Amino acid sequence: MTARSTDLALEARELVKTYPGGRGKPVVTALQGLSFTAAAGSIFGVLGPNGAGKSTMVKILATLSRADSGSAYVAGVDVRRDPDRVRHLIGFVAQKQVSDPMDTGLENLVLAGRLQGLRARAARVRAEELLGRFALEEAAHRQVKTYSGGMARKLDVAIGLMHRPQVLFLDEPTTGLDPQARAELWAEIQRMARAEQLTVLLTTHYLEEADHLADRLVIVDRGRVVAEGAPAELKSQLHGDAVVVELRDGAQVPLALEALGRIEGLRELTTEPTPEGAAVRARADDGARSLPDALAALDAAGVRVASATVARPSLDDVYLRHTGHSLARGDRSVGSAADSDRSMEAVR
């Protein structure tokens, strides 16, 4: 018997996963002792850039890959010892479209239900229910190739729900969608989680998505969890305001740091490149009061400023605090091989 008595929907303990580099390249370490827990009935976010190990982690939990070491449980079931049982407990929505573009939306859903063991009538009833829930009734008999990106993504989520799973994995569900389609899918995910009374694990590199949807989240960087908590809790740990000054010339960073270092009330100065030049970030107890002094000091030093902002702490500030770099500035390439298509492997 592999099930354990637990109120946790998901549990990962010290997961390690490596991939061979190939052609003389070094081994890629996708996960480096990653651990977390997710409570049943919650939307649990996993935030990090592409290549951080998010998809590798999801594949291990979904029995599509095996960790080199460590353990993982879904609804108390060991994913390594009882993968067949885990597959009946979960729904999985991958980054790429899973529906058949040549079939209709209804046909895709009925097929998914039949593959999960539903009888023909039960599969059709469930399919029609989900088409209504995701506002796809009018497109039920159209080929999926005629759907918009947002409609196709809603159908993918519906496919993952056909057999009423206890846990639904959404791996970067809104990548490639326009802002309106993304907002619509956010609303559907929240409604669906409540209606189905299930746990949702959401991986994303969108700060706003994690902040908006997740009841609790982990921030992952280079295969490790670097921060964990509710979004509001994580942001509240950063006292004061974030002050960001964008420079027109990256070569002026040393001058800028010297000038800003003399401003009383500014602390934790960091820099990062931008497409236009560079940005200097700092924290301040009162950003509105510190910013005029900062701009005056930069002007006196001959530093050319492109823009300056003051804001309350964000998840990007949390990410910056724990990793030393900003997620909002774009994804890094480190470890991307681990989350590429070649990382999909047959379950051994």
Give structural attributes.
348 residues, single chain, alpha/beta, four-stranded antiparallel β-sheet
Give your account of this protein's structure.
With 348 residues, this protein is α/β, with parallel strands linked by helices. The protein is built from eleven helices and 14 strands. It has a six-stranded mixed beta sheet, sandwiched between helices. It has a four-stranded antiparallel beta sheet with strand order 2-1-4-5, with helices on one face. A four-stranded antiparallel beta sheet has the order 12-13-11-14, with helices on one face. Helix 3 packs across helix 4, helix 3 (105-115) packs parallel to helix 5 (149-161) and helix 5 runs parallel beside helix 6 (179-196). The two termini are 21 Å apart.
Which term fits the overall shape? Answer: elongated
Major sheet size, sense and barrel closure: 6 strands, mixed
Spatial sequence of strands, sheet with the most strands: 6-7-8-3-9-10
Q: Count of helices?
A: 11
- Structural class, please? alpha/beta
Question: Which spans of ≥5 residues are poorly predicted at pLDDT below 50?
Answer: 331-348
Rg to the nearest angstrom? 23 Å
Strand content: 25-35%
The overall strand count is 14
Helix and strand pattern = EEEHEEHEHHHEHEHEEHEHEEHEH
Share of helix among residues?
Answer: 25-40%
Straight-line distance between termini: 21 Å
Average pLDDT reading: 88
Chain-wise SSE layout:
Layout lengths: L7 E12 L8 E12 L3 E5 L6 H8 L7 E6 L2 E2 L4 H7 E4 L11 H11 L4 H14 L15 H13 L5 E5 L7 H18 L2 E6 L2 H7 L2 E6 L2 E6 L1 H6 L4 E7 L5 H8 L5 E8 L4 E7 L2 H14 L4 E7 L3 H9 L25
Parallel strand pairs: 3-8, 3-9, 6-7, 7-8
Antiparallel strand pairs: 1-2, 1-4, 4-5, 9-10, 11-13, 11-14, 12-13
Helix pairs in contact: 3-4, 3-5, 5-6
